[in-house]
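Lab notes, practical 5.
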Amino acid sequence: MLDQGVTVFSAAGRIAWSVGEYCLAAMLTLARRLPRFDAAVRGGGWKQKDFRGGELAGSPVGVVGASSTARALISLLKPFGCDVAVYDPYLDEAGAAELGVRTASLEETLGCAFVSLHVPDLPATRGMVTRKLIEAMPDGTIVVNSSRGPAVDQAALLDHVQSGRLLAALDVYDPEPPSFGESVLSCPNLLLTPHIAGDTTQGHLALAGYVLADAVGWLDKGVRGPSFVDPAAWPTAA
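Output from the prediction step:
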């Protein structure tokens, strides 16, 4: 449609905020080891003196892909004073400075204490986070994938999560819905959700108004609002 002169609007920018909140919530939940403590209380136990959670504040955060969802998360991370490294071949130094982040290689980005994936499902992104890269992640790394399941070697990631070396929050899978055995489902280092990162009550209520306001602005004054899809940016949009 874009190459035929049809004007397109997308609600992705509004959905991105919902996804950003999910990613922040997942990071905080796993950093404090809340699933493990929740299970302990439910099982009649209590806190362990030799076991504590951690904090997100001041931590290095690696963001893979500078998409709209990534930008929402970056905005939400600002009060935490995190050192945010972003891997995206299309993000230049000027763009990174505008976001208040630094560019980094994929290896360096995946070497952060927190890693969040924000890439579309393209041939170039499928399998980009390989077993070798996962094996190189520091112990205790928290991985959040709210983008697309095929971007990660899921089996490799689950191997390292089940071993206790890594923690992960997965909202997307390869395939969907997933079919996991009891060893995965009972893993205390793993937070599983059914592809709902962008699905909120407030977000759904706001979608129509978000797009319609820009459509009216375009028709009346030729103004390109945040939901306007720029044909020149389409190949790299996510």
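Observations recorded by the TA: The chain has a mean pLDDT of 91. The beta strands are 60-64, 83-87, 102-103, 114-117, 142-145, 167-170, 190-192.
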